[in-house]
Amino acid sequence: MGNHFAAEVRLEHEVYYPGNVVRGEATINVDQPMKCIAARIMCRGLERAVVVRQMGEYTHSVYEDTVFYKETLTLFGHPTKDPDASPVEIPPGVYTYPFAFQLPMHLPESLHTANWTSGGAEVKYQVIAYAKLDKDLVDEGHHDFQVVVPINKRDIVASPPVDATATVKLTKFFMDKGACDFTVSLPRSIYAADDTIEGEIVIDNTNGRIAVKNPNVSLRATCESHVTERQSCVPGGIRAVSVAKPLATQHVPLSVKPGFTNNLQFKIKLPHTVPHPSYPARGCHITQVHHVIVGLEGRQVQLPIHIAHCADEENRFAYCPIEDVAHKPDFRDVEHAYTEPTGYAASPCEVLKPPASLRPQHTPTAKTPQAVGNGQLHADH
Fold it and tell me: Where are the coiled-coil regions (predicted)?
């Protein structure tokens, strides 16, 4: 039966911000009369958390999918929760349905760090045009799109400083040579692509009896994934942390003699495009963070920070709190009767109408500027 039904989805853009309107057109081609329970267009956001378990000599991958955002337009047939599943017949023809979906203001960024050997996470967005048959779901028409999340410049500036201290026990030829303390501090805890992370390393070697030298600085992303007890069949669920390759690494030329204290400034220039941004920090079952890691004489300190896709000088976006562990993406699961968006011409199936029991969709209105290109904000955007 699926051979008689084909659907294609086209979008106006490939990249969107939270608060944007996703506009496009779904084309349904039916070459023979066929029956279905309903035909729909759905916009959704899906998160996949992947955890790899070590079981003796074997590894076992467990994943959990969570649909955190779903908006459905029913073109004809029955609503999704209608107990009456009697099919309707679609006559042959080519039907076009322009659509528009209003994205929530709080959404996680598109992400793909998941693999079946080390775990990770995936967040993807797509528009799907499908017909629900007796028991099957035909989703032959779907179009993935990317969501990137800017952060307001004021929220970057207002982010709290972060620092950490470690004590290094010094030895030489297995002999005790005292200890030194080193402290690493950053003036902010949130950054954006193209930003510069400026920090300070203070080495207190007043209690050391040998010189310490050349701390190294690196920046890397980590993603913690959680698969719940229901999905993993493990009490309390299972968690795992996947670590990405360093985004930046540098060796700092600094030597501190015994009995002295010294300090040094360091800078990490972030690239124009940051892979796997860590802002927003949380999805449904994933937590992302970047760490500035400073190593000295075998010891490390790790400073957690968050890096956004880009910064908005005009402060037009909703802030996703970093410290609020309860903050999750805006959950939405709604269904409306299909209505033709203003300014677009539809060629619907005239003999089949949207269900009268569903309310029409409200006219979507953009709350944020439309993303263009790769989603970077510029002064003239």
Answer: none
The percent of residues above 90 in pLDDT, for the chain, comes to 73
- Domains annotated for the chain, with CATH where assigned, are 2-149+324-337 (2.60.40.640), 152-312 (2.60.40.640)
Terminal C-alpha separation, the chain: 47
Instruction: Provide the b/e sequence for 240-254 (b: ≥16 CB within 10 Å).
Output: bebebeebeeeeeeb
Position 85 pLDDT exceeds 90: no
Q: Measuring CA to CA, how many Å separate 365 from each of 13, 152, 316?
A: 16, 21, 15
Q: Does residue 137 have a pLDDT over 60?
A: yes
Length of the chain, in residues: 381
- Give the side-chain half-sphere CA count within 13 A for 117: 0
pLDDT for the residue numbered 327: 60
Distance, in Å, from the CA atom of 343 to the CA atom of 60, rounded to the nearest integer, reads 51
Check: CB of residue 341 under 8 Å from CB of residue 23: yes
pLDDT at 113 over 90: no
Q: Where are the beta strands (DSSP E) in 78-136?
A: 88-90, 93-102, 111-112, 120-132
pLDDT at 381: 43
At 326-348, the pLDDT tens digits run 566 667 889 999 999 988 999 99
The C-alpha atoms of residue 159 and residue 152 are separated, in whole angstroms, by 11
Q: Which residue has the higher pLDDT, 380 or 255?
A: 255
Q: Please check whether residue 106 is in contact with residue 18, taking contact to mean a CB–CB distance below 8 angstroms.
A: yes
Structure tokens at 248: 């930046």
Tokens at 238, concatenated: 């299972």
Residues 204 and 180 sit within 8 Å (Cβ to Cβ):
yes
Measured distance CA(285)–CA(225) in Å, rounded: 6
Sequential DSSP letters for 68-89: EEEEEEEEEE--TT-S----EE
Rounded CA separation 67/237 (Å): 19
Higher pLDDT, 1 or 103: 103
Q: Residue 162: name the closest of 190, 137, 120 by CA.
A: 190
Q: Per-residue pLDDT for 325 more than 80?
A: no
Residue type, 261: T
d(CA 170, CA 180) in angstroms, rounded, equals 7
